[in-house]
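Holo prediction. Input below; ligand is iron/sulfur cluster.
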Amino acid sequence: MARQSKIKKARITKKEMKKAEKVCDISKAWLDTNVKNTWCPGCPNFLILDAFKRAICELATSGQKKKEELVVVTDIGCNAKIYDYVSLSGINALHGRILPLAFGIKAGNPNLKPVCFGGDGGTYNEGLSHFLNACRYNMDMTLIVHNNQVFSLTAGQASTVTEQGFVEKTHPFGVKEKPFNPIALALEAGVSFVARVSALDIMEMKRVMQEAIMHKGFAFIEILQPCIVFHNNSDFLRTSTYKINEMDFENALKEARKWNYSQEGKAGLGIFFRKQDRTFEQKNLEWKLRNKIKIIS
Ligand SMILES: Cc1ncc(C[n+]2csc(CCOP(=O)(O)OP(=O)(O)O)c2C)c(N)n1
Ligand code: SF4
Ligand SMILES: [Mg+2]
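Structure of the complex:
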C-alpha cells in the first residue's frame, strides 16, 4: 500500500480541471465527425463515446496530451464503430487483432499513444493471447474493452465472459461453461494498470480513461456495457455495483474474484491496481545498449 501512494497519477490540478471541464462541455464537438451513427438508439456505446471525447478534450485543453499524439485502434463489432465517430488518427484492424497492430504502431513511432477499443468477443475470444501478452510486455498503450458479454454485431452469440445459463440462438439450452475473469487474468499476466467501470457513469469513465491514457505502460480498462438488444444488464449495473479504491496486488486479485460476471452478487468498480514498471520500449532499449546493438532512429 505504501508503494501505491508514491505512484504518480494523471496530473490535472483542480483549477485546470474545472477550466477544461467548462470548455469541454461545449467544445467536445471539436472531436465530432460527419459519419452517420448506426448504433441502436439508447445504446450505452453513446455514453462511452461521450466520455472518451470529454477525456480527450480535457487532456488536450489542459496541455497534457495533444490530439496528434493519440491514435485510435479498433477492430470489428458494434464497439469498433467508435473509430468512425471520433475525429482522431486511427486504424481499423481485423477482429481480435487490435493489440498487435497497436504494438507495431508504437514500435514504429514511440511518440504516439495508441488507444485501442475492443469488444469482449474480439479481445477475450479471438484476441486472448494478444491480450495476455500485452499485459506481460507492458508496452505504453491503452486498451478499452466494451464488455457487453456477447458478440453483439453478429446478433448476440455468447462469448468467453457470458454468464452460465444465458440463452441465445447458438445456446438454446443455456451456456454451460463458466465465464473467465478478465480482471484477474490481467493481474496474473502482470498488467501495470487495471480498472473496471460502468458504461452508465460518464464522469467516472472519463476520469479513469484520463488516468489510463496518462499511465506510462499498458493500461487496461474494462467497461461493463449493457447491450440493450442482446444482453441487457442495465438493472444489475444500476443496483449491484460498489466503488473500490486502488489496492496492492494481492488485494486487487481478491477483489477481482469477488464477482463472477453473472447477474448476481455485486461488482466492484474503479481502479483496482497500478504500478510503475519498465515498459517494453525501455526494456528493449536497455537490451540494445547492453548488447551494443546499433540504434537506427
Ligand atoms: C476473425 C473474425 N471472426 C469473426 C468475425 C465476425 N464478427 C464480426 S463482428 C463480430 C462480433 C463482435 O463482438 P465483440 O467483439 O464482442 O463486439 P461487440 O459487437 O459486442 O461490440 C463477429 C463475430 C470477423 N469479422 N472476424
Ligand atoms: S446491438 Fe447492442 S451493442 Fe450493438 S448498437 Fe445495438 S444495443 Fe449497442
Ligand atoms: Mg461484445
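The first strand starts at residue 70 and ends at 74. That is the main takeaway for now.
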